[in-house]
Amino acid sequence: MSFVYRKKMTPGDYVNYGILTIIALFCLFPFIYVFSVSFTDPKVYVPLQLYVFPKKWSLEAYRYILSTNSFVNSLKSTVFVTAIGTVLSLFFTFTFAYALTRQSLPGRRFFMGCVIVTLLFNAGIVPNYLLVKNLGLINSLWSLILISLTNAWSIIVVKSFMNSLPAELEEAAIIDGASDMGVFWKIIIPLSIPSIASFTLFFAVGYWNTYFNAMMYLSDSKKWTLQVLVKTLVIDSSSISVGQMGSTDTNSLPQETIRMSSVVLAMAPILVLYPFLQRYFVKGVMIGAIKG
Amino acid sequence: MLAKGVYMIISNVRKQSDIQPVMDRKKLMNNIIKHRQIYILLAPGFLFLVLFKFVPMWGLILAFKEYNPFAGILASKWVGFKFFIELFSDKNFYIMLRNTLIINLFGLIFFFPLPIILSVMLNEIRHESFKRITQSIVYLPHFLSWVVIASMTFFFFSVDTGVVNKAIINLGGTPISFLSNPALFWPLITIQTIWREMGWGTIILLASITGIDPQRYEAAVIDGATRWQQIWYITLPGIMPTIVVLLILRLGHVADVSLEQILLMQNPLVISVAEVFDTYAFSQGVQRGLISIGVTVGMFKSVINLVLVLYSNYIIKKTGQDGIF
Does ipTM surpass 0.85 in this model? Predict the structure, then answer.
């Protein structure tokens, strides 16, 4: 921070606060708008009018979209992939990272090299697609989980974190006769809880927000995840009308409110988790920055 | 008797160079067995890397073969560099190259300076609560999926229901089709990137600013420097190393234009400015089933990426910073 004895605000300060406020509003406004329209009573929503605040509050759009089969199915798919994917990703990442911290492990440099190679080079979209196809995973939700189990950056950051843990506790455990496994599960993991928390959020957000892989590998629309459904609903707006979503509700509602409510739901968990995300992610970025 | 003794001595005394490899191997085997539990922990991640990262690399061989789905990868016909020659003589290649470079250029000119400016501005704020709230707000877009961001873009810019066009109509103008106008594609993409990443990019820079020695500011104040002078002569030079590293890292990822972002904003009317290597590999390789072309394009992009990342890492190290490796 600038070190100055400043007791009053200069004109420059006011300009600074002013511009920052404008920037903050620039970031906020899309949220406000989308929320606002989604909570507007469809009966009073006139497509050509500009809204900042709902003319009349209503949960009608949400009620509608949550009653459709397509949306509920996509929610199920997404929750499945996110929950299982996050747990597995944590497992695969933390076990591998710990193994890499063992200096005396024969071949450690080789395994580390394997990780770095994946950081530098990847086979590309088509070879990965062929692999998934040959494994028979096309149209399976497991394809989304298995291809993202872990990644080089996560392994490296977790490994750095584990290296920063005090060695005395490990040494004490070994003296007490603990096996390598014992040290890992009983000492390292409990000490790694901050890192586990960060990466739980990191992996969960990653799985939840996945669009491309889900779009590419899931051919059955009943298996679509939330992001894919929202994309077809909002972006391909001419191809699927809201009425085709398989709801029991036969009223035809203005499409805009429903589209917006689907987008809000697609980002709802992220917004709910945001306080935690912000704190742990920022810390993670700082650690990553020091590393890089 | 003597011969038997000599024989016994000779057969028991082996040369050191005979024993050493055997002893090393034995030591190695013992070491491996000693670490068997670690290898168990290593196994899941390693199997994943092998299966999902290295095995697909074998598929790259299809850039040199005419893929026949019935014959499989091994039996497909070898065609050498045919597909690469085809790629480099296809005008689409140069379109993709141009688009990739220009999108990067837009990002460099219009996006890159913004987190720097923003972090300096945030640093000058003395009200902690204002600073914290503003930061929370500007970090938020970073966590959204590209589908959500593209959807918001549509809600704002679509020709019939977009907010901007509604405002234009209310003011008596004629609506502009932002989303199908090729001239506006690159600016739109850049605006999306700015909205999403401007705040997030300040994290590293703000951390860097806190690393500047406060005594330099004290000395400057004693010498009568104004706040502008402090920013110009202390803050900015102080974060210059970080900016340089960020810039070089950025250059190492020129080929990596965000696939989802571009794909979601693509439509037939803007495809001439919106096609990049990954989207082409997807549309030709996966959607149209032209496997070998898809592999070729993807391989080209990955190789370019590799070269650029290695080169940029080399440059970073030459400036005295630690590289990534």
Answer: yes
Beta-carbon neighbour count of residue A264 at 10 Å?
A: 22
Distance CA(B75)–CA(B239), nearest Å, equals: 56
Q: Return d(Cα A108, Cα A100) in angstroms, integer.
A: 6
b/e sequence B244-260, b meaning 16+ C-beta within 10 Å:
ebbebbbebebbbbbbb
**Chain-chain contact of A48 with B249 (C-beta, under 8 angstroms):** no
Mean pLDDT of chain B: 88
A162 vs chain B: nearest CA distance in angstroms? 15
Residue with tokens 């057969």: B11
Q: Give the chain B residue whose CA is nearest to the CA of A95.
A: B41
**Domains of chain A (ranges plus CATH)?**
67-292 (1.10.3720.10)
**Neighbouring-strand partners of residue B68:** B72
Identity of the residue in B123, B200, B227 whose CB atom sits nearest the CB atom of A4: B227
User: In chain A, which residues have their Cβ closer than 8 Å to the Cβ of B122?
Assistant: 20
Residue B117 burial (10 A CB sphere; 0-12, 13-18, 19+): middle
Interface of A with B in 5-34 (CB under 8 A): 5-6, 10, 12-13, 16-17, 19-21, 23-24, 26-28, 30-31, 33-34
Q: Are the Cβ atoms of A125 and B221 closer than 8 angstroms?
A: no
Instruction: Determine contact, residues B280/B259, Cβ cutoff 8 Å.
Output: no
For A4, the closest of B38, B221, B249 (CB atoms) is B221
Interface of A with B in 107-166 (CB under 8 A): 111, 114-131, 146-147, 149-150, 155
Structure tokens at B64: 């040199």
Closest-CA residue to B137 (of A65, A5, A286, A23): A23
Q: How many CB pairs under 8 A join A and B?
A: 281
Domain covering B82-318, topology: MetI-like fold (1.10.3720)
Q: Which residues of B touch A106 (CB under 8 A)?
A: 28, 31-32, 35
pLDDT in tens, chain A (292 residues): 444 555 577 888 889 999 999 999 999 999 998 988 888 887 777 666 666 777 778 888 888 889 989 899 999 999 999 999 999 999 999 999 999 999 989 999 999 999 999 988 888 899 999 999 999 999 999 999 999 999 999 999 999 999 989 888 888 888 888 888 999 999 999 999 989 998 999 999 999 999 999 999 998 888 999 999 999 988 886 434 444 554 444 344 567 888 899 999 999 999 998 888 888 777 776 666 555 4
B260 touches chain A (CB under 8 A): yes
Residues of A in contact with B286 (CB under 8 A): 125-126, 129, 216
Distance of alpha carbon B52 from alpha carbon A132, whole angstroms: 9
DSSP-assigned letters across all residues of B16-60 = HHHHHHHHHHHHHHHHHHHTHHHHHHHHHHHHHHIIIIIHHHHGG
List the domain boundaries for chain B.
15-64, 82-318
DSSP string, A3-66: -----S--HHHHHHHHHHHHHHHHHHHHHHHHHHHHTB-TTT--TTS--SS-SSB--HHHHHHH
Q: Does B46 touch chain A (CB under 8 A)?
A: yes
